[in-house]
Amino acid sequence: MPAGWHAKFPVVASIKIVSTVALTESHRNLIRGAVPNAEVADRTCRTADEVRELLAFDPSTAGGMMNTEFVFVGEGSRREEVLAWVRGLELNLDQLDTIVLLDGKAEYSGTVSIARLLLAAPEQKMSELRSEPLLSIAGDADEKDVFELFDKYNLRMLTVVDEEKRPIGTVTVDDVVSRLVKK
Hints:
Blueprint (H helix, E strand, L loop, with lengths): L12 E4 L8 H6 L7 H7 L3 H7 L7 H4 L3 E6 L4 H9 L10 E5 L5 E6 H6 L6 H4 L6 E3 L4 H11 L3 E5 L5 E6 H10 L1
Parallel strand pairs: 2-3, 5-6
Antiparallel strand pairs: 1-2, 3-4, 6-7
C-alpha cells in the first residue's frame, strides 16, 4: 500500500469496491471517528487484485447477488454530517434507502434507513438510529438463506460481510426479485 493511503479511507463513503474514491479534506477528517489508526485501516482495505478475488462468488450465493456500490458511515457520525456529505455525492438517489454503519474497528455494526436519518435531530449519532435486529450475511451463504431473511424480516436491503465482519456489498429487494423472476 502506498504511504498515507489510510488518510483517504473515509468514515463516510460511497463504495465501488474496485474503484478509487476521491475525497475532500472534510471527508478525510470524518474518518477519525470510525477508523482510529492505520493498523485498523490496514485491515479494512484491500488491493484491487485482492478485491477481485474476494468478489469471485458463485452466482447462487449472497456474494453472487450483491451490489458492491453502497454508502457506509461510521456509527459515531452525526446525522447533520452524513446528510451534508450525501448531498454532495453523485448517487442514484432512487436506489439509496439504507446506509451501512461501521464501528471503530471498521466492522459492520448495522444499518440506518434514509427515513430515520431524515427524521432525526441534527446532532443525533448514527448509532442511535440503527435498525434492529442487526442482520448481515456471509458472502458465501446460499441464495436460499438470503431469500429466507428477506421474507422473515421484510427487508429492503441486507449487508454482505466478509470473514472479518467488514461490509463488502449489499443485496437489495430488487436483487432478490430479479433472482426469483429468473428461476
